[in-house]
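Sample intake sheet
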Amino acid sequence: FPNNVKEIILSSNTSLYSFPETHAKELRVLDIGSNLSVLRKWKVSESEIWVRVELASNKLLDDPNKTRKGWIKM
């Protein structure tokens, strides 16, 4: 996972977690094609990398009660 990546477009449905751990609370499932801004990266081990992301949104059209930030496992 390159360090200079600022955005990710999902190629599969992905769970958004509250904390960078697989047993953390799942906040929601993100759909294929979701556009995410990368906020930070957390490397647990060579095989486990988490990324803190924020969903791109249209503030006028999107539900303000839906979670927009969280962690995804790469």
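Comment: The first strand starts at residue 7 and ends at 9. The radius of gyration is 12 Å.
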